[in-house]
Write a structure and sequence with these properties.
Blueprint: E1 5-9, E2 25-29, H1 37-43, H2 57-69, E3 78-84, E4 105-112, H3 117-134, E5 138-139, H4 148-152, E6 161-170, H5 178-184, H6 196-199, E7 200-202, E8 204-208, H7 211-214, H8 218-225, E9 236-241, E10 244-249, H9 256-274, E11 280-281, E12 293-298
Parallel strand pairs: 7-9
Antiparallel strand pairs: 1-2, 3-4, 4-6, 5-6, 7-8, 9-10, 10-12, 11-12
Helix pairs in contact: 1-3, 3-9, 8-9
The structure holds flavin mononucleotide.
């Protein structure tokens, strides 16, 4: 864990493709050998075109070791499997309908169905994604663009277990596939982020939170803002009140609970790295603000 943090102006280069104004100043880890999760959050982008070769054994071993020790938060049972198309003889098909090209290795998220399971499992999966980012590898959350049947052939699912998300993991290619060139790049909405004041609020949802009011939560909230979400919907909202943060989501089909797990992961990992104390707690009888759904608080 880093102990010293340097002040860094949020550089435009870090936010290439992110629309909101670059006014936010953030803290990033300094010193030590391994990059921080905050650095990984800033660096991560969805990569859909890979170099067309499998990861080397050492990298595979590092990823395996990391995902083996991961545990989903909130007491949820979840695991991540690493699947690979490692040789021509043992070629297995892991279809992505052309969305991903040149990837030989994939992470797959499996969890036991239970309340809050998707959110907790997504939290865990994002940790693996960030770990791989810090290894210099590309990833891309896939909730729709993959053949569940192909992947299920290589994963043993228990009775209550669900395969929900996969991600390629590998070295990004300089060339971009058709999807990245013509869909993602052409339409900025896939990579841009909503401005700070549209996502975070002070006391009520009529009152946008300013960066000054955010205080020491500025960087963790900024890391929430950078979280990936399905179709880049960014339907998480956070309310600051009496030094507590209340996390809400605008419900939408299929991925809202998963997106929330990623946002919670970014928030908590950043707090930990910055030494900000607190933990997640679901407060009872917390108020509802239609169409917003209360999820959890940081207290
Ligand atoms: C839960 C979830 C599901 C996603 N599913 C897909 C998918 O099926 N296909 C795809 O190309 N991208 C998928 N994405 C990637 C998002 O489109 C991407 O994260 C978002 O546009 C933001 O871009 P960025 O990841 O480059 O920051 C998914 C992301 C999340 C979080």
């Amino acid at each position: 864990m880093r102990t010293s943090f340097g002040f860094l102006k949020f550089q435009k280069s870090l936010r290439k493709g992110l629309d909101a104004p670059a006014t936010v100043a953030i803290f990033v880890g300094k010193g030590g050998n391994s990059p921080t999760m905050i650095e990984a959050i800033q660096k991560r982008r969805s990569v859909r075109t890979y170099m067309g070769k499998p990861l080397d054994d050492e990298t595979l071993a590092q990823i395996k070791q990391y995902i083996r020790q991961l545990q989903a938060p909130f007491g949820i049972q979840a695991r991540i499997e690493l699947l690979g198309i490692h040789s021509e003889e043992k070629r297995i098909k892991l279809g992505t309908y052309g969305w991903i090209q040149g990837a030989y290795d994939y992470l797959a998220l499996v969890y036991e169905e239970a309340p809050f399971a998707e959110t907790a499992a997504a939290y865990m999966f994002e940790q693996a994604v960030l770990f791989c980012t810090n290894l210099g590898l590309g990833t891309c959350w896939l909730g729709s663009s993959f053949s569940r049947n192909d992947f299920k052939k290589h994963i043993q699912l228990g009775e209550n277990e669900k395969l929900r998300i996969v991600s390629p993991v590998g070295h990004a290619s300089d060339k971009k596939n058709f999807i990245e060139k013509h869909i993602v790049k052409a339409d900025k909405k896939h990579v841009s982020r909503k401005p700070f004041g549209e996502l975070f609020f002070h006391k009520n949802f009529d009152n946008p939170l300013t960066e000054t009011q955010a205080g020491h939560f500025l960087t963790p909230l900024e890391m929430v803002r950078l979280a990936p979400s399905a179709n880049n919907k960014q339907e998480w909202r956070v309310l600051l009140e009496n030094n507590m943060l209340h996390f809400y989501k605008k419900p939408y089909p299929a991925f809202d609970t998963i997106d929330m797990g990623i946002a919670l992961c970014h928030f908590e990992l950043s707090c930990k790295e910055l030494g900000i104390e607190g933990n997640f707690k679901i407060l009872k009888d917390f108020y509802v603000r239609e169409p917003m759904e209360y999820v959890i608080s940081w207290v």
